[in-house]
């Protein structure tokens, strides 16, 4: 009987340990993520190098300059101008449209702008996009209970950083 009780307690401890909510990004120990930012960089307590840039400067930038690009909410309209659609499709790193209620369509479709594109009902707060050999790969991130709180934003950004590290950095190093 005592042995069964110990096994139950041990199983509960193991299950609890597996369910720890880790809201931090450990990242790649060899390097910090370098993320280009169009607009005001997010405030996060992570080991991330945010590099403010402009869309015009990206047209001539090297593909290896960043691990990802964030386009912040205040720049979504400008970022949807037709001249940038080819840029997003040609980048070798993902672009994340933060605060977009219209997914990635107005940014890759030259006939749309952010203000003229229809909103989606997906409830997503950020959408990532990359063109991998002609195939679009999309990543979407929502906020818990659709609430824009500091905690929920931090969790969303942590999930984006993990995606960048797991999907793009670890694949390049393997």
Automatic annotation (TrEMBL):
Keyword terms, alphabetized: Lipoprotein, Signal
Cleaved signal peptide residues: 1-22
Lipoprotein listed as a keyword: yes
Name under which the protein is recorded: Lipoprotein
Organism: Brevibacillus agri
């Amino acid at each position: 009987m005592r042995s069964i009780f110990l096994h139950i307690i041990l199983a509960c401890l193991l299950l609890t340990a597996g369910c720890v909510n880790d809201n931090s990004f450990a990242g790649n120990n060899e390097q910090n993520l370098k993320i280009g930012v169009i607009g005001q960089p997010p405030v996060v307590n992570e080991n991330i190098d945010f590099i403010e840039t402009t869309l015009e400067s990206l047209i001539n930038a090297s593909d290896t300059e960043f691990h990802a690009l964030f386009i912040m909410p205040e720049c979504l309209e400008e970022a949807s101008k037709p001249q940038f659609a080819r840029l997003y499709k040609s980048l070798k790193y993902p672009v994340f449209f933060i605060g977009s209620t219209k997914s990635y369509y107005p940014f890759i479709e030259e006939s749309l702008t952010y203000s003229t594109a229809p909103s989606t009902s997906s409830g997503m707060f950020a959408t990532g996009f990359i063109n991998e050999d002609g195939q679009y790969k999309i990543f979407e991130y929502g906020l818990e209970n659709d609430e824009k709180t500091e905690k929920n934003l931090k969790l969303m950004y942590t999930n984006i950083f993990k995606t960048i590290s797991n999907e793009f950095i670890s694949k390049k190093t393997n």
